[in-house]
Amino acid sequence: MLQFERINVRYGKNHVLKDVSLSVRAGEIVALIGANAAGKTTTLRAALGLKALTSGTLRLDREDITRVSTPERVRRRLVLVPEGRQVFVKFTVTENLLMGGYRRTDRDRMQADFDRVYDLFPRLAERRKQLAGSMSGGEQQMLAIGRGLMAKPRCLLLDEPSLGLAPILVEEIAATVRRLAADGMTLLLAEQNATMALACANRVYVLESGRISLEGNAEELKESETVRRLYLGVT
Hints:
Layout: E1 2-11, E2 14-24, E3 29-33, H1 40-48, E4 55-60, E5 63-64, H2 70-75, E6 78-81, H3 93-100, H4 110-120, H5 122-126, H6 137-149, E7 155-159, H7 167-182, E8 186-191, H8 194-200, E9 203-208, E10 211-217, H9 218-222, H10 225-230
Parallel strand pairs: 3-8, 3-9, 6-7, 7-8
Antiparallel strand pairs: 1-2, 1-4, 4-5, 9-10
Helix pairs in contact: 3-6, 7-8
């Protein structure tokens, strides 16, 4: 569904992504793991067109979208849930979710998607009139994912969804990711929390200093000496 072909990205003189090639097949969870500043966020921003490529090709459903605008990529149902949640703090839960679907033309069908989000995250249903800025970090992360789902994504890009969350909430987010995949959604998950990512993903890419250093299915990489030493804290 989503394919990066020798992607390069620069911020001025800083070469952030270096010949990155990866693919995400329809219906699978692919994790991109790596240390802070490895280039994970830039990869997802490049996928959505929020960061221009220096070179390389990006394909969605085998069609070249390298020069397609960000709004058009969203219209094609490629959706990003950004790092740091970035909810609208002065809006209610309901208003934040409405913002997720602001480009939709089928407003008469949005109630089913509200119901789906509230089914995934019952706490949001209980707090639908609450201001997002008064919610806990975990609740805001649920809201950020819910807002993304209101855009009816076929491919959902999740940037560090476990960042700053307690372990019990990390597992809740992981369970949601697995449930979305079971329902047929395609997901690209960028995570510093390798334990969580490896528990969710079908396949994994390891990004180091802007380059893909390892790739394989999750079970294989769990046994990789490099992954165990650098990302799982196992010696």
